[in-house]
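WARN no homologs supplied; continuing
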Amino acid sequence: MTQKITVIRGDGIGPEIMDATLHVLDRLGAGLEYEFADAGLAALDRHGELMPQATLDSIARNAVALKSPLTTPVGGGFSSINVALRRHFDLYANVRPAKSFPNTRSRFGDGVDLVTVRENTEGAYLSEGQELSEDGEVAISGARITRKGSERIVRYAFELARSTGRKKVTAIHKANIIKSTSGLFLDVAREVAGRYPDIGFQEMIVDNACMQLVMRPEQFEVLVTTNLFGDIISDLCAGLVGGLGLAPGANIGENAAIFEAVHGTAPDIAGKGIANPCALLLGAVQMLDHIGRPQDADRVRQAIVATLAAGDSLTGDLGGSGTTMGFAQAIASRL
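OK structure emitted
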């Protein structure tokens, strides 16, 4: 059966890594049909807005999107496109795996295999209520945590652990100091954990969690936390396995899901054909799992691992001198 997905080619290196990713997906023969849509600077140039209604309609219609990095222009009047997409579609679960791969610049060999589940729609990233005094001397920003938001993200983490055969969920918080918002999150996490007696549960203060991650990352399986902490921790975890070039991300809600590379647009190397496409490819792997094609997902994952192990056509960030498309072609040849 054919699955139609919305494809956003993105800005900077986005079109290059998207072309490479689609090359692999086409070779895979997974029956995907692409509906291309504009966002970011490309959309601003063509349509006069960063996120045209036609793009939102495409994502709503297809319920699945694969997205390259987007640029939000600096300056007033422009809010984060990624944050806007998450709120528009209520993509409450940000899911970022970090797994060791062979032949990468990682300090931990094959010892990392964890997933960060980050609440994506509330917390410290609310634009409402931010204030700067007229004299520019005082800035104020609030954070909002809800029982509903906490319950559904922790439940998602436990369901993910159960469905993937993982045995432990760690709730990361700062309830010892931020007793209102972080305290509510922790209270709800404890309540939800009681419904999953087959899954181990531990709670950890965020600063200790960061230290433990860089000392013994193998002790973690699924981490669940609030928006700001999750944003920081998931990048830390990417650093454990070789960097953002190997870091995919999924943004999942009840009615839509967007899969992406979590790194930026890298304008300094845009157009040079040297960007690592693996993060977006691994995002496509998450997408294949999400749409019920785990065998196809596993084929791509194994091909990436085999190509990395062989050191074939690796890009500069991985110590090679290969090109974006050359790396993708090497992966596609191993499907």
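The chain has eleven helices and twelve strands.
OK
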